[in-house]
Structure formats: structure tokens, C-alpha cells
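input
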Amino acid sequence: MTISKWIRNVVHGSQFVMNVSLISVMIILLFLMLKEVGSVAYLAWTGTADVHEVLIEVVNFFLYFAFISMILVYFKENYHFPLQNLLYIGMTATLRFIIINRDNAMQNVLLAIVIVLLLIGYVIISPKHRGNA
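output
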């Protein structure tokens, strides 16, 4: 067996292990996401929780949803994850953090600046926003 064939087999084996791992993580995240739906439904049904607790549960649901979507995009894009999606996820995750952690105003201002910087990066690298020259 030549070295290049051996390297190709190692790469294919690693890709297989990574794909199986991602599918396993996706199944676990799907279970946790459904658990969050149950928690929100229970809190809404009983009405015993405050709004902040319900908001945290809803944000957790969307975090699980974002990670599941990220894994699906990885498979859809032929084992590649576009940088635009990472920037988008960073913006939404930062916004969710601002919503939940609303006690420190200065920290929220800095996080808002981070969102603007991520948005600028998204616009710069996104091929959809470039002109048709």
C-alpha cells in the first residue's frame, strides 16, 4: 500500500468517525430541544414561573435549534460549513446573551458593538451582497 493511499484511507476513516459523531450529537440535541419544548409547555400550562425563567427556556430551545441547523448545513454543503453561517450564529448567540443577561449595561453595549462588527464581517464576505460587475 502506498503512502498516498494510506493517507486517503486515514482521511476517509476520520471523516466517517466525525460524521457518526455529528449525527450522534444531533440526536442528543434533538432530544434536549424537545425537552425544552416540554419545559416551556409545562411552565405555560401551570403559570407558576416568572417571565424570565420562561425566556431562558425559550432561548435554550433556539440554541439547540441553531446547533442542529449547523450540523444539517454541514452535511448539506458537502462536509463544509460556510463562514457566513458561523458569523450569523455568533450574532444571534450574542443577541440571546444580551436578552438573558440584562443586568450589566456596559457589558451589553460592548456586546452590541461585537454584533455590529460581526454584521460588518458578514456583509464583507457574503457573496450575495457583492455587485454583479
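quick obs: The two ends are 49 Å apart (CA to CA).
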